[in-house]
Design a protein that fits this description.
The protein contains seven helices and 14 strands. The chain is an alpha/beta fold. The protein has one domain (about 5-250): 4-Layer Sandwich (Metallo-beta-lactamase, Chain A). InterPro entries: AtsA-like_MBL-fold, Metallo-B-lactamas, RibonucZ/Hydroxyglut_hydro.
Length: about 250
């Protein structure tokens, strides 16, 4: 067995930009299960480029149902079916089952092809993923649609992933005591926006945030050329490590 391994598959957004596809994070657990947090456009190809097979995914965990976080879910399921693997477990917020049923319903040739277990999660619920030592819990974010942030505890390591949100108490509480917090940072300091995050919007939380490493993801094109400025702003206010995610970057919690 190995400890938790994390790899960014997609660190971008719905607007195309060099080197970044849409949101997706692969996490290998201590028991070698592969969890896929979000699955936006381009993530299926990045999964292949990471040396993995679509059939390797043991569960898909969705933060919310915006297209740049779910666009490759059906292509991934179809790829697995073509490789003779029909089953998959999908976790997500309320509405995930209806969304997926409606999506598959658009393609008659795919109906009846999959054996899916769809589990809708509510904030505060904790579930065991591959044994009692691997636990997943969630908290609500602040986004334009229902969105969940996740806390994964496995093999003595803790990862928290914010999904899309503006900074909020519920997710910062979820992140306390974690080894790594992966938080969206869509825009540079001074950019006015709701339901997303900028470094200065995170500032009120940084002094009391108890996490070892902070990785910024979900970067809009407006962040290009201002990455170092954003890092310096946050490093001057946060006692742990701060990094900007890139596609296919591998990290250890």
């Amino acid at each position: 067995m190995v400890s938790m391994k994390i790899q960014f598959l997609g660190s971008g957004v719905a607007i195309p930009q060099p080197g970044r596809v849409q949101s997706g994070i692969a996490v290998e657990t201590e028991n070698d299960n592969l969890l896929l947090f979000d699955c936006g456009a381009g993530v299926l190809q990045r999964l292949y480029e990471s040396g993995r097979d679509p059939r390797d995914v043991d569960a898909i965990i969705l933060t919310h149902l915006h297209l740049d976080h779910v666009a490759d879910v059906l292509p991934l399921l179809k790829s697995r079916w073509l490789c003779e693997k029909r089953d998959c477990v999908i976790y997500g917020p309320e509405g995930t089952r209806d969304w997926l049923d409606g999506l598959i319903g658009l393609y008659p040739y795919l109906q009846g092809r999959f054996d899916l277990s769809v589990i809708e999660l509510k904030p505060g619920r904790q579930i065991a993923l591959d044994g009692n030592d691997c636990r997943l819990s969630c908290a609500p974010g602040m986004h334009s649609v229902p969105s969940l942030g996740y806390r994964l505890e496995d093999g003595g390591k803790i990862m928290v992933y914010s999904g899309d949100t503006q900074p909020c108490d519920s997710l910062m509480e979820l992140a306390q005591g974690s080894d790594v917090l992966i938080h969206e940072c869509s825009f540079p300091p001074g950019f006015e926006v709701d339901f997303h995050t900028t470094p200065d919007m995170l500032e009120p939380y940084l002094g009391k945030l108890d996490t070892g490493k902070l990785y910024l993801t979900h970067l809009y094109p407006q962040m290009q050329g201002r990455e170092q400025e954003s890092l310096e702003y946050m490093r001057s206010r946060f006692k742990g490590e701060v990094h900007i995610a890139s596609d296919l970057l591998e990290i250890d919690p």
